[in-house]
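Bit of a strange request maybe. I'm writing a small parser for structure token strings and I need a real example to test against, not something I typed by hand. Could someone generate the tokens for this chain?
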Amino acid sequence: MIFDGFNEKALGFLDEINENNNKVWFENNRYRWKEYILDANVAYVEEMGEHLIALDPFIKAKPKVSGSLFKIYRDVRFSKDKTPIKTKIGIIFWRGNTHRMQSSSFYMHYTSSEVFVASGIRTFKTDLLKQYREYIKVEKNAQELDGILNDLKEDGIQVVEPYYKRYPQGFKKEDKYAHLSLFNCLYAYTTFKPNKTFFSKRIINKNFKFYDKTLRLYEFLYEVTISK
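Reply from user aminoacidic:
Good idea to test on real output. This should exercise your parser:
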């Protein structure tokens, strides 16, 4: 499938979902979701996946729902948002044998008003959080991560802010790299409005350049996920 950019009709369709967020409406319009959103997303995963092999030969790019594409239906059991249909369309490429959301990844989502592109891990669940903290207790690892984050910021790339206010057990405020223990996730990101580039094949190069610039963080976090 050839990727020529995301479909401009997708944004209007997402706005329609906002106004008609129920399963009956969506099932009556599922064909439009496939035409406006799913088909372009599948083509994007196939095309971008081929590019990302240059950064990571082991990258997982699976052009299907529950692979690199997220389900359109929300699991309301685990969400504060109880509307059944998602209006944020997510796409993910990852490395490793753990769950895709607990793996180092290249990620993108878009709504009708914003495109969000990121590299890293967007949530540390309990086991991964412990693993991360143990990994950065090694000074060499903490020093490397601190340098990566500083370089990203100097390059004008946004990095998620620390979440916790109190230092966890095993870390002291006076420790040089203690601030790294305050993260509950770790990723670099950029945002922009859907534009002509987004609706053309040029979005491949735009996003690839961002992933290339943030590759060191992606690689560092992969090492975290396989550490014991």
